[in-house]
Design a protein that fits this description.
A six-stranded mixed sheet has the order 6-7-8-3-9-10, with helices on both faces. A four-stranded antiparallel sheet has the order 2-1-4-5, covered by helices on one side. About 40% of the residues are buried. α3 packs parallel to α6. The chain is of the alpha/beta class. It is globular, with a radius of gyration of 17 Å. The longest helix has 16 residues. The chain is built from ten helices and ten strands.
Length: about 230
Amino acid sequence: MLNIKKLTAGYGGPNIIHNVDISVKEGEIVTIIGPNGAGKSTILKSIFGMTKIEKGAIHYFEEDLTNLATSEIIERGICFVPQGRTVFPSLTVQENLEMGAFIRNDKKVLQKDLHDVYEKFPKLYERRHQLTKTLSGGEQQMVSLGRALMIQPRLLLLDEPSIGLAPQIVMEVFEKCREIKASGTAILMVEQNATLALEYSDRGYVLEQGRNRLEGKGRELLANKQIGELYLGK
């Protein structure tokens, strides 16, 4: 589905990532872990057309995305949820979700997808007429996820989806990721809660100083003593 080869990129100054290789298959949750400053978020932003790519390639279903604009990438079924619960605070929950479908014209199907989002996130249905700024942090994160799903993405990029959330809400976010995967959307995630993320992931990558360090199945990485000592606090 997604194949990143020898990617070197940054933001116009020194490169942040160097010769990075990452792949995502259909129906997978893949997590990138590593210390702060390792370049994890830069990978997601590179996929989404938000960095300066010096070399390497990003292929999505055999199509080269490397030099496409963000708007063109969205049209191909990729959506990015940045960290920090980026919502439109002065709009209602439903208006936020409808904003996620800004590139779509199929109004009848749109209503069905809105219904599907409310089924995944029942709390949002209860609060659909509330201003989003009045919601809790966890509820705002649900709005961000639900809004992304309104584009009908085949690949969802999540940057630190659990950041700043209470432990019980973190578990709910990861359960929702599992539901999203089951509905047919693959996920590539960057997450500081490495232990929990790898438990929910099919595969994972460890990044260090902008380079690939290790990769493997999620539970294999969890059991790796070296990773446990360096990144999981074991």
